[in-house]
Design brief:
One of its GO terms (biological process) is tRNA methylation. InterPro entries: SAM-dependent_MTases_sf, TRM61_C, tRNA_MeTrfase_Gcd14. GO terms for molecular function: tRNA (adenine(58)-N1)-methyltransferase activity. This protein is of the alpha/beta class. It has 2 domains: about 55 residues, Vcp-like ATPase, Chain A, domain 2; about 180 residues, Vaccinia Virus protein VP39 (Rossmann fold), CATH 3.40.50. It is built from 6 helices and 15 strands. The radius of gyration is 22 Å and the shape is globular.
Length: about 270
């Protein structure tokens, strides 16, 4: 059993399952309107311990999951939410050793998810405050060693991509279609491009850019997240759901000189 130690991150759940993300520090206290809990009362305790505030409110202490951290971490830009993070990694086929170009780092939610899958990331971001926030969040959740696979630059992807022979290109920026020609020079044959776009008009423009004849398997989808109420025999969909957040457009690169359409007959 691994006990909580100072320096660790802990998520506290109240009786309404609201989450509070803290970092254990000597002499520090967790404060809410329902009283406070000294961090020293958490240090040395096992995960799942039940804690009481000074006003007798109950809190359960757990180590944060990636989902917890993404939803509670400090942010500069709007994050990509968990319901899209997992499909992005599946559609883009992210895995150990995969070399990914990512632009639009934001607060680092997608970066830390792909790094946790084992990818190596080359990241471009035009805002220094967002770049620093992304690197800090990656370090805080995954540890300093993860930064060895996280190569970030203050650069504008609209102006080009320096790297070549990339396995994946993942775009989260307002005009991803402007990056498609650069991706065609930087991706290896068989590589995958994925663009995350809030509006359908952005997805349409991106699909138009992917119609050059160098891409196949172009598709656009969105992920809808609906939970269910299950209490005994009372079973129904919950009244609320997380519906549209963005469209995911994905395509596979063939490489220069290879036609996207299959010939009608094999060559003699």
């Amino acid at each position: 059993m691994r006990e909580f130690q100072f320096g660790e991150k802990v998520v506290l759940l109240d009786n309404k399952l609201r989450r509070y993300l803290i970092t254990l520090q000597e002499g520090a206290e967790f404060h809410t309107h329902t009283g406070f809990i000294p961090h020293a009362n958490i240090q040395g305790q096992p995960e799942g311990v039940l804690l009481w505030s000074t006003k007798n409110s109950k809190y359960r202490a757990l180590r944060p999951s990636l989902e917890d951290f993404v939803l509670q971490m400090p942010r500069g830009a709007q994050v990509i939410y968990p319901k899209d993070l997992a499909p992005i990694c599946m559609l883009a086929d992210i895995g150990p050793g995969i070399r990914v170009f990512e632009t639009g780092l934001g607060s680092g939610a997608l970066s830390m998810t792909m790094l946790r899958y084992g990818a190596e990331i080359l990241g471009y971001e035009i805002r220094e405050d967002f770049l620093n926030r992304a690197r800090t969040n990656v370090r805080e959740f995954l540890g300093v060693d993860a930064l060895e696979r996280y190569h970030t630059h203050l650069r504008d992807a609209y102006e080009g991509i320096d790297e070549t022979d990339l396995d994946r290109v993942v775009l989260d920026l307002p005009e991803p279609w402007q990056v498609v020609p650069h991706a065609e020079r930087s991706l290896r044959a068989g590589g995958i491009l994925l663009a995350y776009t809030p509006s359908i008009t952005q997805a349409v423009r991106t699909r138009e850019a992917l119609s050059s004849g160098l891409w196949i398997e172009q598709r656009t989808l969105e992920v809808l997240h609906r939970t269910w109420h299950i209490e005994g025999q009372a079973v129904r969909p919950d009244h609320r759901m997380v519906a549209h957040t963005a469209f995911l457009t994905v395509a596979r690169f063939l490489g220069d000189g290879l036609p996207s359409a299959l010939p009608d007959a094999s060559p003699d």
